[in-house]
Amino acid sequence: MVEAANDLVDACEKQTIPERLQALIDDIVEESPHENNEPISQHDAHRFVQSLAGHLKNWVKDQQGHSSAVRFDDDAFALAFNHFLRCPASYKQMRSDDCLVRPSESLFKKLKKDIGVEGGQSFNTAILQPFVRGDNGREEDSAEASAFMVDGAGLGVNWSVDSKWRSGCGSEWGEVACDEATISQGMVTNSKNNVSRGITNDFFELRRVMSNITDSDTIESMDRPATKVNQWWFRATNGRMFCVMSFFNAGSLSGDVILRQLIAVIMACEAVGSRVFLFACDAGGANQGTFKSLRGNEAIPDDMVWLDDEYIRFINPYDPSRWIYLTHCSTHNLKNMRNRVKESKADGSKCFLDVNGNIITWDFVNQIYNDEQLLIDGTGTPTSGLTEKAVYPDRWSTMNAQHAKAPFAPKALFVMLAVIHRELNVSKDEAYRVVDHYKVIKELEVIKNSGMNEKAARMIGYFTTVAKRLWDLFNARCPGNLNLAGKIATFEFFAHTSEIYNLRLLKMDELITWANIKVYKEQAKKNLTYFSDLHLAMIKRRKDKKYSADWRMTGLPGCTFDILRITVSGFFGYAEYLFQLAKTSPSLPESVNRDFAVTPAQSNTSFGESFFSWVRARGLDNACSFLVAVLNTAMIDMLKNSLDHNPMYDDEDVGKVTKDANRLGIRKIVTILKHLRKVVARLIGEYNEKSEPYASPAAAFSPGAVAFAQDEGILPSDDEAEGDEPGDEPPPPARPTSAQMGMIIIERIQEKRKLRNGFASYLLERKSFREMITVTMGQEIWPFFVSVLHDTRELDVSKKFDTACRLIMDKLLGMSLNSVLRNSRGESYEYQLFHFLSSKEFAEICFANLPTDAMKYISAGWVFLGLELSDILQEWLVIEAKGVRMKLDPDLFNASRTLQLGPEELKSETNRFGGWAGKSCMARRSKYLGGDAEKCSKDPQYRLLDLIVCYEKDLSEDYVATKVEFALYLSNYAGEGGLSFVAEPFFDALISIMRVVSTAVTLEDFASNNSGDVWAKGKNLVSLSSNLLSDFSLACKRQVDIAQEADPTFPDINHAVIAKVYTDVVTKICNARFGAVEAAYKLRASLKGDAHLSFRGMLFASVEGSKKKSDTDDVNEKSASPGTITLPFPGDRTAVGKDFLKGKRIVICGCYEEIAEIALIAKAELRSCLESFGAKVGVSLTDSTDYFLAGKGTPPAKIKKAQEKNIRIVNLNRMLRLLRGNLKDFNAMHALHPLDKTSFTDKNYERAVDEAADSAEDAGVEPDADDEEDFATVELDADKVRAKAARVAKIGAKPATYAEALKQTPPKRNHRRRRALAPLTTNAQAGDRGAAATEVRTQTPPQQQQKKKKRRGGGRKKRGAGPSPATSPSNSDKKAKAPRKESKKKKKEKK
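Now predict its structure.
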C-alpha cells in the first residue's frame, strides 16, 4: 500500500498545473448534489483552467518578490485592457483591492499611446490581416515579389516583365460594408507629442470647400469636434470579418465623401489579399448618392423589373478585370417597407392601392392583433406572433428589426389566410395547403436540378400562389365585397414582401449555392414583377384627374422601389458572379472551393450593428477611445452576443462569424506595426542617402496647364479675359469671378510649386504614401513600390517618373477646376477622380510614361499613385485659394475671428508670446540636437524657427513704428534688451493666430466645463485650424524660397516640417494664454461682486475694473480697486536710475492686486519693472537672495524660510517707494519696521498706492519745527509720548541681523494699544493694524497731517462713490466700524 501511495504522489507531481486544476474540476462535478446537470463545454473548461493557472503562477511570483517576472496570456490581458479603457479609475481600484495580479495602469497607458490608431485613411488594420489569417506564402504569379523580403534585402532585384503581373485569387473573397453611428463628443490632446483625437479627419468635398473659399462671405472651419463615425468592415464568405477604416465627421457626410472613402477601403483590402466583390450599406441619403455616382449618375428606368448589370456593379479600381456589385442592407430595407405600408390605413397619411384599385391597408394587421387579444382574455392561444410594438410601433420600437419582421413572418401570414378563408367560406378540403404546393413544384425541372429537399423547397412561392387562388375564389363568390378585397390585396402585398426578405434574404439557415440560385432568382423576379406593376400603376394615376396631386400617396415612393430592386438584383448578381469565378478561376483561396455557398447574411449590415453594440457596452463610443476598439481582436468572440443588449437587431441576421486563424494580442499588434514602420523608415533613409540630387527644382505641373484649361473651356481665353481693345477694357471688379480666381490659382501653383528633388522624393516624405508602402510590403504589388524606392535613385529614371506624375497632376487639376468652376453636369471632383482612375486614359498615361517595367505593368500601383497625387493637389489648391482670397479680401478673414484685444494689445501679445514661443522652440530643438551648431544648421525645424524669430536690432524702422507696441518697446530697455520678436514676414500669420487664441477659450468655458476639457477643446480648435495653418504655410513657403535662393545650403522645408513647427509654436502660445484665462476665472469665482476682467499685455496695468469716481475722491479711494497703480520705470520723474538694483537678487511671491487682477500678469509686470532697474528676479529662495518681495497671501512657510536664511522681507509698498525715490536709500527702507507672516494676510496687508514724493521723511529731509504741532492731533499724554520716543529710538537703530530685527518687534499684548494710537484706516485702504501702527510713531508730523487730511476727505465723499464691491469690505463691517469712530471723537471732545 505504501508503494501504491508513493506511485500516486509521483503521478500527481508529474501533472502540470492545468491538469491538476482540471482534475479538481472533475472532482467537484462528481460531488455535485444537483441532478440533471448540463454538460460543461470542453472549450470553456480549457479556457477557464488556463486562466486560473496563469493567475496562480503570477500570484506566486508576485508574493516571492518577482513582480517583473509575471506574464499574462492574451485573453486575460485583453479583458484587463478593456476594463482600463472603460474606466481607468475603476480598474485602478479593482487592481488594488483584488488579490489577483493584473497589469499596471502605466503599462496600459504606454500601450494605448504606442497603438497609434488613427482615423481617416489609416491602413493599420489592413496591415495586420496577413498575420491574422496566417498566410503561408504569396501568390504563384507574383512569386518574384516574395524575393523582396520585409528586411529590404531584395531591393536590388529587378522585377521581370515576363511574369505579366495580374491580381491573384487572393486569400479570401467577400464584401465591404459601411455604417454611420453617433459617438459622444470629446477631444484629447497629448501635450508631449501634440497628437489630438476627437477631431474630424474625413476626406473633404473639394467643390464645397473651394466654393466656400472663393465665393462665400464667411470662411468655414474644416476641423470640428467629431460627432459621428462612418465605420468600414470587410466580411469574407466564410464569415471572417475585420474593421478596415474609421472616418470621423461632424454630421455632414456626403455621397462624394463616401465615394472617396470607398476607393481607399477597396485598395486597402485588395492590397492584403482580401478580394472585394460586393459593397453593402443602408439606404441613407448619402449612400444613395454614392450608388448613383457608381452607376454613372444614370437614373434607373421605371419599367425595368430586374436591373441590368450597369446599374448594380462598377469596375474594381484595383483590378479593372473584376466587378464589384452593389446592394442595400436587407434589414434596413424591410424596416423601410414596414414604415411605408403602416401609414396606409384609415387614419394614415397614405392609401396604397394595387393594380385593380383595391386598398392595401395596415388595418388588417390591427384587426388580427386585436382579435388575438380577445383570445388571450378568453384563455386562448395567439398564433400570429404579433406584439403590441410590432403592430403599434413608437419612435423607438420602429427601429427594432424583430418587430419589423413580425408582420411579414409566415405565422402572421397564415393567420391572415385563415381570416380570409373564413370570410370566403373556404372549407378545409378546398384550402390550398403547403403540402399541396410542394406536390406541384417538386415536379418542376428547375426544382429537380437544384437538389433541394422538401424542407427547403416547400415554401418557395407558396404565399404568392395562394394569393392568386384567393383572387379566383373572390371573383367567383363575392366580387363586390370591397372590405374582403382589401384584405386579399393586403395579404398579397405582405406575401411578396415576406418571400423577398423573411423567406430569402433574412433566412440564414438556407444558403445560396450554384445549384439552387436559379430557383431563388426566378422567384425573386416574380416578386419584383408584382412591385413593378404596383409602381407603374401608381405612375399612371398621375394623369388621372380623380387622384389629382395625391397620386404619390397610392404606392411605394420611387426611391423605395429603386432600393428594393438594387437590393435584390445586386445581391443575386454578386452570388452568381462568385459562383462563376469559382468555376473558372485557375486557383482559389483556402476559404473558397468550387461548390461553395453564399450566406444571405452578406445582404445586410447587422454585423456592423453588432460591432457598435459591442463598443457601446464597453464605453468606447467616443471619438478618443473608439479607435482602440477597432484593433481589438477579442471583438470577434463576443460579436453576436453583444446584440443581447441591443434588441434593435436580431443576432440571427449576423450569420456565421469565423474566428481568425491566429489570435493576435494587443501587444503583438503594436510590435508588428512598429517593426514594419521601422523597416519602411530604414528603406526611405537609404533612398535619401543614395539618390542623386537635382540641379534645379522640378515643376509640379506642365507649363501649358493654363492653355490646357482654356482649350477645354474651363478657363476663359486671354482675349476674353483682356478684351478686344485696350481702350474698351472694363474696370476690374471688386471681387474676381470664379474663372478669374481659377486663373490666378493656376498661375500661383505653376510659379510656386517646385519640387526640390522630384516627385519620388516628395512622395516618400508624406506619411500617407509611407503607409501605402507598409500595407503592400511583401504583397503582390510590392514590386511597384520597390521600383519607386530603388530605381528612382537614378536621376534619369526619377525625371521620367516626374513626367508621368506631372501629366497625371495636369489631368487632376483640370478635373478640379471643372468641378469648382464650370460644373455644368454636376460632376463632383470625387466622382471624376473615381472614374478617371479606372479609365483607359489613365492607363495609357501610366503605361506610356512610367519609367520601369514594374511601374508599367502593375496597374494597382497606378491607383495608389493617383490617389496620393490627388491628395497633394487638393492640399495645394486649398492653401493657394486661401492665399489669393486673403490677399484680395483680408477683412473677410479678420471678420471671421472675433477680436477681443485692442490693436495695441494685439501687437504686444503677438510679439511677446510669438517671439517667446519661437525662441523657446529653438532652444528645445537645439537641446535635442545636442547643441551641435552644424546639426542645427542642417536641421529643417531649427532653420525654419530661426527665420521666424528675430531681435529688435534686426527690425526695420517701419516695423518698430507700426507693429511693436510702445510699452513692449520700453520693457525691452528701448531696444537694448534681449526680448525676441516675430520676424516681419511672419507677423501677419502670427497675429491671426493670436486673434483666434484670444477667443478660443473664455471665462464662460471654465464656468461650464471641466478645466481639462476646456484646454483640450481650445488647443484643438487652434492648432488644427486649417485657416491658420494655411496662412502660416504660405508665409513659410515664401521665406524658405527666399532663403534658399540666398543660401544654397539651406535645407528643404516640406509641409510636414511646417506643420510640426506650427504645432509646437501654437501649443506654447495656447499654454501661456489659456493659463492666464483660467487664473482669471479662478480669481473671479472667489469675488463677491462682479469683476470686470480683461487680459492685457506687459505694462498694460490700466483696466476698466471699477466705476469711475469723481475728481473729489481721495487718492486712497482711487487705489482701492485692484490693478490701479502705475509701476515706475527708470528716469520717470523722481524715479531712480536703471542700475539702481544692479547686483540685487529679488524673489517675488504672492498676489499683487494693486498691479493687475490676474496674478500671472501682475507678476510678469512686476518682474519687468524690477529687471528694468537692474535686478535679477527669481522664484526660489537661495543664499544669494537679497530681498523677498512678498505679496498678499504669501504662504507662511515661504516667509519662515526667508527668515531662517536671514533674507530681508519687504512688501510692494516699500519697494515702490524706494524705486520712486520716496525713500532715500536702502538703509531708509531697512529702518522701517520688519515684516513677518502676519503682515501679508488679508487683514493686515499694506497696499501700495500712487503717491507723490513730497513728504519730508520720504525725501530723506529732517522735519521742520513747525511740523511738531501735528503731534497735538494725536492728543497723547506725556507718559505715552515718552514711551513712544523710547520705542522710536530703539527701533531707529539698525539691527545687525534680520533675526535681531524681529526680536525688536513690540510684544503682541501692545497691539491693541498701538491700534488705538494709529490713524483710523478707511474702507479703501486695508492697512496693517499691527505693523503699520508702529510705523506711525516713526512718521514725521507733516506725514501725519497729510494722512489726517486724507482721512477727513474720505469721510466727506458722496454716497455711491466708494470702491468697487470686489474690494470694499462688506456692509456689516462698515456698520460695525461707524460707531467706533463716533465714540472716539466724543472721548476726545470730553478731554
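The chain has 58 helices and 18 strands.
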